[in-house]
Amino acid sequence: MEADQISKCHESDDGNKNKGSSNDNIFTNNCNLEDTTALEDETEVEETLNSQNKDDGSQTEGDKDGNTSSKHSSLKDDMNAYILRASEKGRYDIVEKLLERDPKLLNATDADNYTPLHRSVYSGHVEIVKLLLSKNAKVDASTIDGWQPLHCACHWSQIDIAFLLLQNGADINAQTNGGLTPLHLAAATSCKSILEMLLMNRYLNWNLKNAANENPCQVSKCSSKNFYLFEITEDRINLLK
Known about the structure:
Helix content is 53%, strand content 2%. It contains 12 helices and 2 strands; from the N terminus they run E-E-H-H-H-H-H-H-H-H-H-H-H-H. Strands 1-2 form a two-stranded antiparallel ribbon. Helix 3 (67-89) runs antiparallel to helix 4, helix 3 packs parallel to helix 5 and helix 5 runs antiparallel to helix 6. It is elongated, with a radius of gyration of 21 Å. Residues 1-74 are annotated as: Disordered. Keywords: ANK repeat, Repeat.
C-alpha cells in the first residue's frame, strides 16, 4: 500500500508536516526556545555566508587535492538546510537573505524531496510562500511520495495558501503516488472553506480515484461532516446540464 493512500475512512499519511532531516536541524525544534535562539540562527547563517564569500574566487594548494570541492559541497548542504528550516519556521528574513545570496536555493530539497515551498506551505507561512512564488518557485515540485505543495495546503487546511498556489498555476487535479488529489485530502478534513473553494473551481475533476479506488466524494462521506457539499455541487451541475 502506498504511504499516502486513503482507504475506507482512514488516512494513512500526514503529508509530513513535522518533516526535517537530521542534516537540517540547525534551528531549534522547540517553539518555546525559538525567540531566544533567533540571534544565534542569524549569526550562524552570516558565518556560513561569510565563509562562502571568502572561498569564492580563492584557490589554495588544497584546491588541487580536491579539498575545496569538498568544502564547497559542505557549504551547499548547510545552505540547503538553512533555507529549508527557515521556511518551515517562518524566518522570512533568513529565507530572503539566503535567496539573495544564492537564487538556486529556491528549489533546494531534503532527503524526501520537500522544497522550501512545501515546508512554508504546510507550516502556514503565507508571506514566505508569497516570497518564494515571486521568485518562481516550482509549484509542481513533488516529494518522493508525489505530494505537491497544493496537496500539503489542502491536507493542512491552509486555504489562503491553497488559493495562492492555484493562482500561480498549481494543478488542482494533481495526483500523488497513491492517487490522492488535493480534493481527496480536503475531503478528509473538517475544513469546510477549503473544500468549498476547490469544488467551485471550474477545472476540478472530482471523479478521480485514489489507489483504494475511492473518489473524493466517497472519502468525504465516511470521514467528514462536509459530505453535503458534494451533494449541493452535484445538484448544481445537474441543473446546468
